[in-house]
Amino acid sequence: MSSLIEKITLYDLLGYSIPGSILIGMAGSAYLIKNNRYQCFYDTYKDSFGYLFSALLVLGYVAGMLIAEITDIIIGACKATLDFDVKEKLKEVDYKSVEKALKKANYMTYENRLRSEEDVLKYLSSMYGDIQSDVKYNRLHNYSSSKLVCKNLAFVSFCGFIIVLSYLIQSFDLMFLPDTNVVKVVFIICGCCTSFFLFIRRWKKMYVKTQFYTVVWFIEKYNKDENG
Q1: 3-state secondary structure 158-222
Q2: Tens digits of per-residue pLDDT, 27-68?
Q3: Sign, CA torsion 158/162/165/167
Q4: Of 193, 201, 210, which Cα lies nearest the Cα of 151?
């Protein structure tokens, strides 16, 4: 039970609910501020923030799942670039060891051979499914959770930039805003852009790391008798 709760916390709360809640919170706040209804909203619901927070988490979970699907579609369009990075990392792996492990696990027939990183990539999904179900290699689940969090937060950061930019476009009197407001807006834009690139950078690292360790631990699992 404790293991299940831990997985729900990492995978569901951090991966879906928090990014989704942040996105909904940003969009709702931008709407209230733009229409000068922030104070009215606070006065109306100031005694119900607990219920609102619970509803926000539930809606955030749904929004988080949609974010994950959208980002998966975007990543699918960039898969060639990502595969190139994975292939470069896989050059550190011995093909013969991968081939032996795949044959022992019955994912590959005896006649087949691995001749390049491209061939290894074809079996990654099978290796991942095998490894991630083994408790000994549960760190792979943590890597995947971290990858999900970074991916979704990168999308949220980008949406935050779009929200603020849309607000600026509709605010033709921006040049007449007090200097403090201008500074705040510029700070938010810079923060969103910086967060986006940092989360993308972190996600890419975790993506390559997950793929690489899937192969390494798969070899370890099926060739451990030979290595030991």
Answers
A1: HHHHHHHHHHHHHCCCHHHCCHHHHHHHHHHHHHHHHHHHHHHHHHHHHHHHHHHHHHHHHHHHH
A2: 888 777 777 777 777 677 677 777 888 888 889 989 999 999
A3: negative
A4: 201
